[in-house]
Amino acid sequence: MSETILQLKDASIYQGESLVLSNVNVEINKGEFVYLIGKTGTGKSSFMKTLYGDLPLTEGEGFIVDYNLKTLKEKDIPFLRRKLGVVFQDSKLLIDRTVNENLLFVLKATGWKDKEKMNARIEEVLTKVGMKTKGFKFPHELSGGEQQRIAIARALLNNPELILADEPTGNLDPQTSVEVMEVLQDINKNGNTILMATHDYALLLKYPSKTLKCDENQVYEVVQRKG
């Protein structure tokens, strides 16, 4: 029996007053790697924002890592986000702190207390993304790809049940994009579920996986032809 991590039933997604996606029916199971594709402006970001509580779900049903998006209260959002790892197009690292301090900041903010455990966890996630020796550097001393690896490490800190990656390779050159994808693939092989919004079709060809497409206010699964 596969475990459902995310399920939307007949959901409509709004950005303010305007309807972005209607009648969305999506299910993602534990351990899957799922792409979300679609042209700019077709609702990928609104879809993602609804999942991490930035936009309210007002129509239909939505369940994500045991949270009901329809009845999600403001005070629950930080707890929901602890179960999700969110990676943005821009790494959103704090520029005045080292990599280690960036990660420490998140652990403290999410309730970790034990200094030894915190340091051990930081070393663990940095090792996972191949950045073990970069903890003492500041973001500006890292390349774009390295910054994104740190952003992925940060997303992994609280052992999330689902990682939402919103255009994580959007600002990167093709070679670096592949490197970041390799990291995400490894994490997925270790059992983390990933939903990744992207417009980089080269990555889909190189790493084929279940694909959802936003188009004309709808989200549907794309059946990939075996070539």
Automatic annotation (TrEMBL):
GO terms for biological process: cell division. InterPro entries: AAA+_ATPase (IPR003593), ABC_transporter-like_ATP-bd (IPR003439), ABC_transporter-like_CS (IPR017871), ABC_transpr_LolD-like (IPR015854), P-loop_NTPase (IPR027417). It comes from the Bacteria. Keywords: ATP-binding, Cell cycle, Cell division, Nucleotide-binding. Residues 6-225 form the ABC transporter domain. Part of the ABC transporter FtsEX involved in cellular division. Important for assembly or stability of the septal ring. Belongs to the ABC transporter superfamily. This is Cell division ATP-binding protein FtsE.
